[in-house]
Amino acid sequence: MSNKPSVLFASSEVYPFVKTGGLADVSYGLPRALIDNCDVHVVLPLYRSIDREKFAIVSLNQGYIINMGGTEYFTDIYGCYYEGIEYRFIYTKILCERDSLYGDNESAYVDNAERFGIFSYAIVEMLLAGNYNIVHLNDWQTALVALLLKEKEILNIKSIFTIHNLAYQGIFDKSSLENLGIEESCFTMQKIEFYNQVSFMKAGIAYGDKITTVSNNYAKEILTKEFGCGLDGFLNYHKEKLVGIVNGIDEQHYKRERSKKKAKKTYLKSVGFKGVKKPLFIFIGRFTWQKGLDLLIESLDDIALLDCNIAIVGEGEEKYHKALKEISDRHRNINLYFGYDESLSLHMYEATDFLLMPSIFEPCGLNQLIAMNCGAIPIVHDTGGLHDTVCDYKDINNLKKRGIGIVFREQNSMNLYKSIKEAIMIYNNKIDYKKIAKLNRDCDFSWSRSAKRYIELYKTFIDTKH
Ligand code: ADP
Questions:
Q1: Which atom from ligand 1 is nearest to the alpha carbon of 349?
Q2: pLDDT digits over 255-268, tens only?
Q3: Ligand 1 pocket, Cβ-based, cut-off 6 angstroms
Q4: pTM of the model
Q5: Is 160 exposed, middle or buried (0-12, 13-18, 19+ CB in 10 A)?
């Protein structure tokens, strides 16, 4: 066996083909950072929304029929080569022919167990047909692969299971067991049973040869009741396999030629804001409880009365849309955009002075890394990966490979408001502001350090004799 690991990196979303959140960014950036030290292919579903022509995605004429739980699914493999990486796409009708990836509005598709079950079976077929030593699985959508490999006794392929967010577990009715062709003997507390339901997340944790999560601090947090989402006991049982490796960003992707001043001026003009000299605060993200929306909404009227501009972009739960709309209608210095817009978000990171990230929990968080890389200062709750990547400006002499922001410890709206007032004070002291912005811009948020740790992990598999 060669010493260079051969890895199949499996993810349910990969930028720029399809993206709903940070997982797509990681699945884009990490393989690119690994490619010098391992052979890596990335596999994802060929959803209807993916532009086959633009990315020159073609059939590899490797169609086959998969029998899952007594039903036959015709599966076709497609491929393309994009920016130095080989991509593989799995096409199966029930997986790919949908308007969205996981569900409509606020409810998940009812057959997600079968959809991502078939995705997992197809990945196993690819592993058997290829020369891979390792499969790197990401989140519940690919977690069944770990189970299938062990249950089918394909022991020469090792699996790494990465948890990007423990809150999304892929929990399904017990009846899906039969549709998935999984033996009843796997339906135990030690394996995939979770309160009489089937848990894909548990399959990844129980059967993965290694488990990683996306920051050191989150790796510790998920072992506690507060952050364990009901799996803290189970994770504690498997903690010898668990490591935290912080995410990076593809810095090249965010490189901008314009100065912040210029970018800010253009952005403010585009949304009809006055006052280039006022600090600009942005929030970008999914409108969910996790991202601290309640806190933001509670304090937004007060924040808007300060001498600043605020821009909020995102989509999600209806109640948050409604509340944000009501508040922004009262203030001329709040700009609200509902929707998902990659180029708008890049423009905002480039233009902004501050980023608001009051998340209740945050496995790693990418927004703060992107913002700091663009010379902005994040205002964050001290949790998960935010703790590992952002150092409070008052501890500027104790950076430890982190960027600088304003960090509040206790999660309440008063603390968010106070932090924003501190931000305005820093902003008005141009010397401090410029110093922090420069330190952030110069900080290394690239994937290189973390990619090394993944390579070390991969190598532990191929160096040991099985
Ligand atoms: P998540 O929990 O959503 O995965 P992350 O911080 O890990 O959060 O990653 C979020 C990614 O999605 C970032 O690249 C962020 O800029 C992007 N993003 C989130 N919401 C939007 C939006 N409405 N429009 C454009 N980009 C967005």
A1: 16
A2: 777 899 999 999 99
A3: 21-23, 25, 284-286, 313-315, 340-342, 345, 365-367, 370
A4: 0.96
A5: buried
